[in-house]
Amino acid sequence: MKPATALIWTRLASGLAGALLAASAAHAARVALRVRRAHAYSRCAQRYTRHLADASHRLLIVGDSTAVGLGAKSMEDSIAGRLARDFPLASIENRAELGARIACVLGQLREVDAGYDAVLIAAGGNDILRRTPYDALRVALEAVINRAREVAPLVIVVNSGNVGGAPLFGWPLSVVLSRRSLQVRRIFALSCRRLRAQFVNLTFVPRRDPFGRQRELYFAEDRLHPSSAAYQYCYGVLKRRTRLTRLLAAA
Question: What is the mean pLDDT of the chain?
Fold first, then answer.
């Protein structure tokens, strides 16, 4: 190759690399801005809690923003709110915290005594976003389940939806987050099976993901958290796949 030709190809490659780096930096900046906006959106969240002195049953809810109900139009549209509506004699204590990882959920459980009829754990999305190592995630999850079993005879674990399907994330980040979501789903399923906790799976492969196929319906304004319709969908799965509602309905 002649020196002049080699110089042209070198300049073209350098220019292409620079353009790709600039595009990647711009995309990363857009994603960072969207994440900051989603964080600001979380300030309006309120968790539903109802203490009854003479309750028929006692339910404890722990976890992250999905256990709080972030994204729902009202507290009554959250999982806790829907349970309170359907079971007016049940006492519902919600200790979930925005941004909590699985390891943080253990802290939510350490401060409670035994005597609950059921513990509902909803978490996992923050571990996907913040890249918690898989081994550390498994250890933390099993510690949470074991502690929950000391608190109540029925333990239910609900994972997050496929984070890669959220409108907040574009390609290629959506692909990375989707793969990680499916790996975390496997950890949840195996740990729940081993420790005899009821597992409610909400993470699906992209082509079968109901949330990803109807983003306008199932995602809130921040393009990351579930909408009221998504919480309704999750509540329906919870009723079909677990003994929770049959327990709360029993005399």
Answer: 89
Using the predicted structure, report yes or no on whether residue 14 has a pLDDT greater than 60: no
Are both 79 and 172 inside the same structural domain?
yes
The answer on 23 and 112 residing in a single domain is no
Last residue of a domain, one of 28, 44, 60: 44
The predicted-structure confidence for 166-217, as pLDDT tens digits, reads as follows 999 999 999 999 999 999 999 999 999 999 999 999 999 999 999 999 999 9
Whole-number Å distance between alpha carbons of 16 and 242: 54
pTM of the model: 0.85
Question: Checking DSSP bridges between strand 90-94 and strand 154-158, what pairing results, if any?
Answer: unpaired
Per the structure, the count of domains in the chain is: 2
Same domain, 235 and 125: yes
Give the whole-number percent of the chain exceeding pLDDT 70.
Answer: 82
Element (H, E) at 77: none
DSSP string, 217-235: HHB-TTSSSB-HHHHHHHH
Same domain (yes/no): 84, 187: yes
Q: For residue 81, report the phi and psi dihedrals to the nearest 5 degrees.
A: -65, -40
What is the spatial distance between Cα 116 and Cα 1, in angstroms, rounded to a whole number?
A: 78
Amino acid at 220: A
> The domain containing residue 15 runs over which residues?
1-44
